[in-house]
Design a protein that fits this description.
By secondary structure, the chain is of the alpha+beta class. It is 36% helix and 27% strand. It contains 22 helices and 39 strands. The chain starts with a helix and ends in a 6-residue tail after the last helix.
Length: 823
C-alpha cells in the first residue's frame, strides 16, 4: 500500500515506514513522562535531519534565502535577496514541508491572490509567486521592517491623538481590502507592522492567511471552504458572528468589530476580554463570552486598573491619569462601543465610516456614534465657534439684565402713580413689554439662523471633503433663503455644479480616458478588460471594444480620429477601427503588461510603455516594431510624443522621466526630482515644456530642451496619477488618488479649481480639443465630464464672491445701526 501511494518518492516511503515501526515498538520511557529516552531522541533527530527545508543560502526561484524571520503553523517566512531584474530584499513565504495538504495549499493560494488584489500604501504588496523544486507554492512580498502596531505606540509613548491618526490609516487600508471584495478576518496587532519611511511611521497590514472573498470572485482554483464549526481567527479579536460558527455568513462588519477591539487596546492598554481567561474557559465558554457578555467601556476599564498599572498605561500615552480618563470619556467611548455591538447592523457599515467618525472627533465635530442630542450638538458648535458664542452670550445677558431692570422700574412707577391712571399705565406697560419681547425674539431668531447657517456651511465643507457632492447641493438649497449668506455659500454653489456628465457602464474601475480629435467622442479603458466609446455631448455608450484578456490600462485616438489604440496588462496593445470597433492589429513584444500607449502626431507610429522596463515604437499601419527604448531601471508607467513628433517622453517607477529622440531612440535627457515613481507625463502644445505626475503627491513642470525644473504643483492629498496640458498650454489638469482632480495655471502654478465628485481615486484626466471640458476616469467605475474654467472665468467668479461678501457686510452694518431704510 505504501509503495502504491508514495510512487517514486522513496524518501517519503522511508519516513512513513520509520513512523509505523516506532508506533509498533513498545517504549516504557514514553509512558514515564515528558523526558524521552536516548533512543527516542535519536530517532526524532534522524527524522528531522532527513526532512529537507529552506536554509540560509538556498535559492528558491530568483531569490536567495538569507534568514528565517517568521513561522506559523503551516508556513514559514524568510528574508531573501533578489538580484534580477532588480536587486532588492524581499519577504518570501512558503508552505512548510509536510504541511502541503490540499486544504493548506488552497488557503495559501487564497492569501496570495487576496494580497495580489491589493494596491494600497498601508498593505504589504505581493511582488512575485511560484513553486519550489519540490512543488510547494511560495509568494514574494515587500519586506516590511517594523514592529507590531501596539508595541510601536507604547515604545514611542505616542499620545492619543497620534495613535488615532495612525489607526485611521489602518481603517483606510481595511476599506481598500473591502472594496476589493476581501474580508481579512484576523485583524490584530501582530498582523499590523509599523515601519519608518523618511522618518514618518507607516502602518502595514499583513497576513491575509484566513481572508475571505465577499463577492463571486474566486481567490483560488483549489477546493477551499470553511468547514461547519471550524474555528477561524484569534479569539480576543473575533466578532460574535465569527465565534458563533452558525449559518450566518461573515461580512465586512466582522472586520469592523476586530478594528474596534484593536482601537480599545490602543486606548485602554488591553482588549475587552482577557485572552488568557478566554482560552481557559474552553471553546464553548469562549463563544458564550464573545457572543453574550457586554464589554466595559474603555474609560471604565481604565478606572478599574490598579494605581501602578494605570500610571504605566498613562505614561505610555504621554498623559497623566486624569487627562487620559477625560480623553476617553464621551466620543471615544461611544465610537469604540459602536464597533463592538453584538448586533452587526448597529456597527459602522464601513471602515471609512469609522475613520470619518474619528476625524470628526479630532476636529471637535459631532460624531455619528453618539446620539445627537440638542445639548451635545450645541456643545460641539460652541467649541468650534467660541468667539461667536461668547459674543451672543454677552448680548443675551445684556438683554436679560436690561429687561429685569426695566421690569423693576415699571413696577416701582406703578406703585407711585395715581390710582386713577393705574389701569391705563398697566395697559401701556404690557404693550411695551410685548414689543420688547418681540424684538428680543427677533434678535434671538436672527442669532439662531446665523448659527444654523454656520453649522450647515461646516457640514457642506465636510461633505465636499468626502466627495458627497449631492449632500453639498442639498445644504445649499436649504440655506438659499438665509440673509446671512456669505461668500462661502457662493463658493460651494459654484464648485458643486462643475460636473456636466457621468459615464456609467464599466463593471470595474476606469483606468484611462481620452477625447477624439473633434471632441465628439470619448474612449475609456476599464479594469473589466474592455474599452468603451461614448458620445461626449449626451454620455450615450456607442461601442464596446472586447478582445483583451486583462485590464485595459491606456487608450488613445489617432490624430484623424479613425483609429483607437489600447494597452493592456495582458502584455499586448491593439488597434481598432473607431467607427465600427473592428480589431485591426495586435502589437506583441512586451514581456510584461502594456501600461501606456500614444499615437505620433502624424498617426504613422505608436509608442507603448511596458512593465518590462522598455518602451517600443511601432509602425501604426503594419504593427512592425521599429525601436526599443531601454534605460529605465523599473517599469514604464507613461509615454507621450511631443506635438512636433521629434521626441518621446517616458515616466517610470524608478522615480525618473526620460526624453528620447523619436527617430533614433537616442536618450536625450533624464528628469530627476520626484521622491516616488513617475506615474504620468505630457508635453505642452508648443513642445517647450513637460509636465510629470508622481506618487509623491506632486506634479512638476520642466523645460523640455534642458531638463530644468520650472514649477512644482503641490496641493493633492494623495499620489498624482495623471497629468495633461490644455490645448492652449495655459492650464494643467492633474488627477489624484485623493479622489479629486485639480486645474492649475501653467505659468505660475496657481491652483484654479478643484473637481470633486468621484467616490474613489481619479486614475486618468484629459482636456477636450477646445479646452472647454475635462474628462476624468476613476476607480469608482465611472468617468465624468466637467466644465473646465479658464483663468479669466475663475478670476470673475472670485470678483463676484468678493462683491457679494462686501454687500453682505454693508447690510450687517446697517442692521446693527438700526437703519430702517436699508432692506
Amino acid at each position: 500500500m505504501l509503495a502504491a501511494v508514495c510512487g517514486n518518492d522513496r524518501t517519503l516511503q522511508q519516513r512513513l515506514e520509520a513512523l509505523l515501526a516506532a508506533h509498533e515498538e513498545a517504549n516504557p520511557a514514553l509512558d514515564a513522562g515528558p523526558v524521552a529516552s536516548p533512543t527516542v531522541k535519536a530517532t526524532i533527530k534522524i527524522e528531522l535531519a532527513d526532512a529537507p527545508d529552506e536554509a540560509v543560502g538556498q535559492v528558491i526561484g530568483r531569490y536567495k534565502v538569507l534568514q528565517k524571520i517568521g513561522e506559523g503553523g503551516c508556513g514559514a517566512v524568510y528574508m531573501a535577496e533578489q538580484e534580477q531584474p532588480v536587486r532588492r530584499r524581499v519577504a518570501l513565504k512558503v508552505i512548510k514541508l509536510g504541511m502541503d495538504t490540499k486544504a493548506v495549499i488552497a488557503r495559501f493560494e487564497a492569501e496570495r491572490q487576496a494580497l495580489a488584489l491589493m494596491d494600497h500604501p498601508n498593505i504589504a504588496k505581493v511582488l512575485d509567486a511560484g513553486s519550489t523544486d519540490t512543488g510547494r507554492p511560495y509568494f514574494v512580498m515587500e519586506l516590511v521592517r517594523g514592529i507590531k502596531f501596539t508595541e510601536y505606540c507604547d515604545q514611542n509613548k505616542l499620545p492619543t491623538r497620534e495613535r488615532l491618526e495612525l489607526f485611521i490609516k489602518i481603517c483606510q487600508a481595511i476599506q481598500h481590502a473591502h472594496q476589493k471584495g476581501i474580508i481579512h478576518r484576523d485583524i490584530k496587532p501582530s498582523n499590523i507592522l509599523v515601519t519608518m519611511h523618511d522618518g514618518v511611521p507607516v502602518p502595514k497590514v499583513i497576513d491575509f492567511g484566513i481572508a475571505k472573498a465577499t463577492t463571486d470572485q474566486r481567490l483560488t482554483d483549489k477546493t477551499l471552504f470553511t468547514a461547519y464549526e471550524q474555528f477561524i481567527g484569534t479569539p480576543a479579536y473575533m466578532s460574535p458572528e465569527q465565534a458563533e460558527m452558525s449559518g450566518l455568513d461573515i461580512d465586512t462588519r466582522s472586520d469592523i468589530y476586530s478594528l474596534g477591539v484593536l482601537l480599545y487596546e490602543l486606548l485602554a492598554g488591553s482588549t475587552p476580554f482577557d485572552p488568557k481567561e478566554l482560552m481557559a474557559s474552553g471553546i464553548d465558554g469562549m463563544r458564550k463570552t464573545i457572543r453574550d457578555k457586554e464589554p466595559q467601556r474603555p474609560s471604565t476599564r481604565l478606572a478599574t486598573l490598579g494605581a501602578d498599572q494605570l500610571t504605566t498605561t498613562a505614561k505610555r500615552r504621554s498623559a497623566d491619569t486624569s487627562k487620559l480618563m477625560h480623553q476617553l470619556k464621551g466620543d471615544l467611548d461611544w465610537i469604540v462601543m459602536k464597533c463592538l455591538e453584538k448586533d452587526r447592523t448597529r456597527r459602522y457599515e464601513t471602515a471609512n465610516g469609522l475613520a470619518a467618525d474619528l476625524k470628526r472627533h479630532l476636529g471637535n465635530e459631532p460624531v455619528a456614534a453618539r446620539p445627537p442630542s440638542v445639548a451635545y450638538k450645541f456643545q460641539k458648535a460652541a467649541r468650534r465657534n467660541k468667539l461667536a458664542f461668547g459674543a451672543g452670550a454677552a448680548v443675551v445677558a445684556a438683554l436679560v439684565v436690561g429687561l429685569a431692570l426695566a421690569a423693576s422700574g415699571w413696577r416701582q412707577t406703578l406703585v407711585e402713580r395715581d390710582k386713577a391712571l393705574q389701569a391705563k399705565r398697566a395697559e401701556e406697560t404690557q404693550r411695551q413689554i410685548a414689543e420688547t419681547s418681540a424684538r428680543v425674539a427677533k434678535e434671538q431668531k436672527a442669532l439662531a439662523d446665523h448659527l444654523l447657517y454656520a453649522a450647515d456651511m461646516n457640514l457642506a465643507e465636510q461633505a465636499w471633503e468626502q466627495a458627497a457632492v449631492g449632500r453639498v447641493r442639498e445644504l445649499l438649497e436649504e440655506t438659499k433663503g438665509f440673509l446671512s449668506r456669505g461668500f462661502e455659500w457662493y463658493y460651494w454653489e459654484r464648485q458643486s455644479h462643475l460636473d456636466l456628465k457621468t459615464l456609467r457602464g464599466h463593471l470595474g474601475g476606469v483606468s484611462s480616458v481620452a477625447f477624439s480629435p473633434d471632441g465628439q467622442r470619448i474612449v475609456t479603458g476599464g479594469w473589466d478588460t474592455t474599452a468603451k466609446v461614448w458620445e461626449a455631448a449626451s454620455g450615450k455608450e456607442l461601442l464596446t471594444l472586447k478582445g483583451h484578456g486583462s485590464r485595459v490600462s491606456s487608450v488613445a485616438f489617432s490624430p484623424d480620429g479613425q483609429r483607437i489604440v489600447t494597452g493592456s496588462d495582458d502584455n499586448t496593445a491593439k488597434v481598432w477601427e473607431a467607427a465600427s470597433g473592428k480589431e485591426l492589429l495586435t502589437l506583441k513584444g512586451h514581456s510584461h503588461g502594456v501600461n501606456s500607449v500614444a499615437f505620433s502626431p502624424d498617426g504613422q507610429r505608436i509608442v507603448t510603455g511596458g512593465g518590462d522596463t522598455t518602451a517600443k515604437v511601432w509602425e501604426a499601419a503594419s504593427g512592425k516594431e521599429l525601436l526599443t527604448l531601454k534605460g529605465h531601471g523599473q517599469l514604464i508607467s507613461s509615454v507621450a510624443f511631443s506635438p512636433d513628433g521629434q521626441r518621446i517622453v517616458t515616466g517610470s517607477e524608478d522615480k525618473t522621466a526620460k526624453v528620447w529622440e523619436a527617430a533614433s531612440g537616442k536618450e536625450l535627457l533624464t528628469l530627476k526630482g520626484h521622491r516616488s515613481w513617475v506615474s504620468s507625463v505630457a508635453f505642452s502644445p508648443d513642445s517647450q515644456r513637460i509636465v510629470t505626475g508622481s506618487d509623491d503627491n506632486t506634479a512638476k513642470v520642466w523645460e523640455a530642451a534642458s531638463g530644468k525644473e520650472l514649477l512644482t504643483l503641490k496641493g493633492h492629498g494623495g499620489g498624482v496619477s495623471s497629468v495633461a496640458f490644455s490645448p492652449d498650454g495655459r492650464r494643467i489638469v492633474t488627477g489624484s488618488y485623493d479622489t479629486t482632480a485639480k486645474v492649475w495655471e501653467a505659468a505660475s502654478g496657481k491652483e484654479l479649481l478643484t473637481l470633486k465628485g468621484h467616490g474613489q481615486a481619479v486614475s486618468s484626466v484629459a482636456f477636450s480639443p477646445d479646452g472647454q471640458r475635462i474628462a476624468t476616469g476613476s476607480h469608482d467605475n465611472t468617468a465624468k465630464v466637467w466644465e473646465a474654467a479658464t483663468p479669466e472665468q475663475v478670476a470673475a467668479w472670485q470678483e463676484e464672491e468678493q462683491a457679494a461678501e462686501q454687500r453682505l457686510a454693508r447690510l450687517r452694518a446697517a442692521a446693527e445701526k438700526g437703519d430702517s431704510k436699508q432692506p
